[in-house]
Amino acid sequence: MPVLGLQLMMLKDQINEKGMYEVLRQVRDLDIDAVEVSQVTMTDELLEDLVRGKTDFAVETAALSASLHAGENGFSLEDELDRAIDACHRTGARFLRMAGMTPEALTSKEAAEEWGRAVEPYAARLATEGITLCFHNHHTDLAQFDGERIFDIVRRVAPSLLFEVDLHWVQRGGMAPLDMLKAYTGACKLIHVKDFRVAPVPMDTVRKLRAGELDFQGLLESYNSLVQFAEVGKGNMNWPELLPAAEAAGAEYFLIEQDDTYGRDPIDCIRDSREYLRSIGY
């Protein structure tokens, strides 16, 4: 069974306030076995806390973050490849993940190919060090050029680059998550376990519509805004089928993530997700 972890983006404020080590203590108290590190500065002190956390709390590092260029999320592959390799070895992380493609890469087939070709040498080099480079999808990566999904373009030009599959974004992108996992079996190493919720229509929207203050286009925009990130088990995703399918597709880590908690304490949201996953056998 894949290791159950947490995408620490959810606790980045707490990391900045009290340090990684104390956050790992909280993660252990939540009965979570691994973390993925994102959206925090990768200082030597933070890396050392990850090492201490594995020893003291048995919380392993599932993945660290990287980007192609400097100034983005995590280690810059262009400028910090050796440091990223060293950090993975120090923390025991076997995966380095990229938080999506550059916006430019999403604009055309040629741009997607160019991005993939730029990333491939780094993915191949990391593989020689026992580190798998994965890229995290969003709904935008399901756009098609000449009938070819961006996913397929990347696989074609960057075969050493595998996937961190965010099942919420697959659902939002209009592809059935079960179909996606089947189509890319063997390439799906990290899974973001994030639910997809549609919030109720606010009564204020109805009032504005009936008062003539909202036209049809405004109503559509209001409906589109109701799509939310949700605690696992609080949305519409079929996790009892999805998680076994993800494991069959090659997943090694299931990582709880919720991009927005809508005013709730992230710890409470994580706890709810963890309790639901326990209730279905994880």
Give, in order, the helices and strands. Answer: EHHEHEEHEHEEEHEHHEEHHEHEH
Indicate the low-confidence ranges by residue numbers.
none
Strand order of the largest sheet: 1-2-3-5-6-9-10-13
What is the overall silhouette?
A: globular
Straight-line distance between termini: 9 Å
Name of the CATH first level: Alpha Beta
Radius of gyration: 19 Å
Structural category: alpha/beta
CATH superfamily: Divalent-metal-dependent TIM barrel enzymes
Proportion of residues in helical segments = 40-55%
Mind summarizing the main beta sheet? 8 strands, parallel, barrel
Strand content: 15-25%
- What's the architecture in CATH terms? Alpha-Beta Barrel
What is the overall pLDDT average? 96
| Total count of strands | 13
Number of helices: 12
Q: What would the CATH topology be?
A: TIM Barrel
The figure for the number of domains is 1
Description:
The chain is an alpha/beta fold. It has a single domain (3-198, 229-279), classed as TIM Barrel (Alpha-Beta Barrel). 45% of the residues lie in helices and 19% in strands. The protein has helices at residues 12-18, 20-29, 44-57, 77-91, 109-128, 150-157, 167-172, 177-183, 203-210, 216-224, 239-248, 266-279, and strands at 3-7, 34-36, 60-67, 75-76, 95-98, 132-136, 144-145, 148-149, 162-166, 188-193, 195-198, 227-230, 253-256. Helix 2 runs parallel beside helix 3 (44-57), helix 5 crosses helix 6 (150-157) and helix 8 packs parallel to helix 11 (239-248). It starts with a strand and ends with a helix.
